[in-house]
Amino acid sequence: MQRRLITTSASETYELGRRMGGNLEPGDILALFGELGSGKTCFTQGLCAGLGIPRKRVISPTYAFVHEYEGRLPVLHLDLYRIDNLEDALDLDVMEYLSRGEGGIVVIEWADRIMPLLDEDTIQVIFNVVTSRKREILVSGREGALDRLVPGEHARG
Ligand SMILES: Nc1ncnc2c1ncn2[C@@H]1O[C@H](COP(=O)(O)OP(=O)(O)OP(=O)(O)O)[C@@H](O)[C@H]1O
Ligand SMILES: [Mg+2]
Fold it and tell me: Whole-structure pTM over 0.85, yes or no?
């Protein structure tokens, strides 16, 4: 199952994330895909806002590679940009982070780095840059998760 959304500003992408964040449940894992500057962090800030975590706390953990936030649910925010291969990811105990998500939420930027480690319950969010301000956002996952996170009236196109 897949839902397609279009946003035409960073604040719309943030708002989309915020609405989804309000409906997240413990154990949800979101894998984000998309080139540099496509909106992954902006979306994650919205998602966290939906869980009651202030936007300014949420920055891409490019150097630390993982940040933890405490909101309505705990959030692990991973950024795997600098990880070149699966072996490096495993050395950094990415599997451990994925399983710790059980009581909380895991959000992974540059999830393509660990594609083989993602299970079929993972919610995948692809960010395609259409123009400097327009993004096509494709959310896929199980039907139940999509109904909860991207209710029909929010999906366009
Ligand atoms: N519709 C849009 N949605 C999201 N961001 C947008 C949009 N239009 C313009 N932007 C701009 O694109 C940039 C997105 O940056 P952001 O850090 O969220 O990207 P990213 O995918 O996390 O990049 P990186 O891979 O470097 O972590 C911001 O500068 C934002 O203002
Ligand atoms: Mg980012």
Answer: yes
